[in-house]
Structure formats: structure tokens, C-alpha cells
Amino acid sequence: MAHGLNMFRIILFSLLLILAAAPAAAATPETTPSGQPVPRFVTLKFGAVNGRIGPSRAHPVAWRYARAGLPVEVIAETPDWRRVRDPEGEVTWMHQSVLSGRRAVYVRTETPLRARPRADAPEEAVAEPGAVLWLERCRAGWCRLEAQGLRGWADTSGLWGIYPYELAETPALSAAAAHDTAGR
């Protein structure tokens, strides 16, 4: 009987190990055609970009975007097309050639740019709602932004285009975000 009980424990332990590993395997991101993670933020390369209802030029244009640098979130992809969500929540398909891996943020609410990443730091400028600013780096709930030669730190609460994991204490954005990753 003791042998049977030990065998039962071994089987039970093995099953528990398999079940414990299953969620980790399910959480592993699938390989994408570009080799980049999805979701991810990118920007529009040009001042005139079509967002289509499907992943081909044969699909009708749903939106015409007229703002180079506008951040969008890649939520799916094919080898040549990216399904993106814009700051207003609209979802369209864009050809990978019109997207850049350079990062930017979209300002949702009036946001002071400060000299240092602290609420009591001197205010350098104010970003109005709808402004697009280049993202340099983030840490501890603040991001260093740049636009038209002005730089400053902004509290992330009024910004779109940043993931919570990017707010950890890091010296700079990852190398992958520093170059064009949208078309790969």
C-alpha cells in the first residue's frame, strides 16, 4: 500500500508541475511576422497616411491621418500590414512602410513639462491637449519628452502611448524602441 501511495504522490506532483507550467506557456507571446512584440507603440512616418478597413490596398480607406509623428498602437500584424489603434480608439490597418518605431506620446490633458521628474520642479512649458511630443525615456511615473526644441519631464497621467511596464526605473528606452521596428 505504501508503494501505491508513493506512486500516487509522484503522479500528483507531476500533474501539479505540468499545470503550473501551462499558464507560463500560454503567456508566451506568439512570434509575429516582424519579430516585434504586439501590442507595441509606433508613430506615423508621414503627414498623410491612410487607415484601411482591412490589410490590403484593395480595402476602402476608413480614416485619413494627417499628422506625422502621431502615436498608434500596433495590436496585430501580417507580414506587410499592421492593425493599429489610434489615440481616440479607432482601429484601422496601415501598411508597415508608413510606420516608424520612433516613439511619441499624445497629450490628453493639459500637461506641464518640468525641469526634473518631480511635481514641485520648475515648469519649463505646458503641453496642450492634442499635442504630440517625442518620447525620450520614462521612469517612476514620469516621462522625458521633447517637441520643437523644448524638453521636460511630464507626469504620465495625461499621456497616451506609454505602457505601465515602461514606468520602472530605467536609464533609457530599450534599443528596440530607438530604431524603426515597425517594418521588420
Give an overview of the whole structure:
With 184 residues, the protein is of the alpha+beta class. The chain folds into three domains: 1-30; 40-100, SH3 Domains (SH3 type barrels, Roll); 104-160, Roll (SH3 type barrels). It is 16% helix and 37% strand. It is built from two helices and 14 strands. The chain has helices at 2-27, 175-178; strands at 40-44, 49-52, 61-65, 71-77, 81-85, 91-95, 99-100, 104-107, 111-114, 123-127, 132-139, 142-147, 150-155, 159-160. The chain has a five-stranded antiparallel beta sheet, with no helix packed on it. A hairpin with a 3-residue loop joins strand 4 (71-77) and strand 5. The chain is elongated, with a radius of gyration of 22 Å. Mean pLDDT is 82; it is low at 5-28 and 170-184.
Strand adjacency order, main sheet: 6-5-4-1-7
Strand content: 35-45%
Helix content: 10-25%
Q: Termini distance?
A: 61 Å
Q: In CATH terms, what is the fold-level topology of the largest domain?
A: SH3 type barrels
User: Count of helices?
Assistant: 2
Pairing-aware structural class of the strands and helices?
alpha+beta
Architecture blueprint of SSEs:
Layout: H1 2-27, E1 40-44, E2 49-52, E3 61-65, E4 71-77, E5 81-85, E6 91-95, E7 99-100, E8 104-107, E9 111-114, E10 123-127, E11 132-139, E12 142-147, E13 150-155, E14 159-160, H2 175-178
Antiparallel strand pairs: 1-4, 1-7, 2-3, 4-5, 5-6, 8-11, 8-14, 9-10, 11-12, 12-13
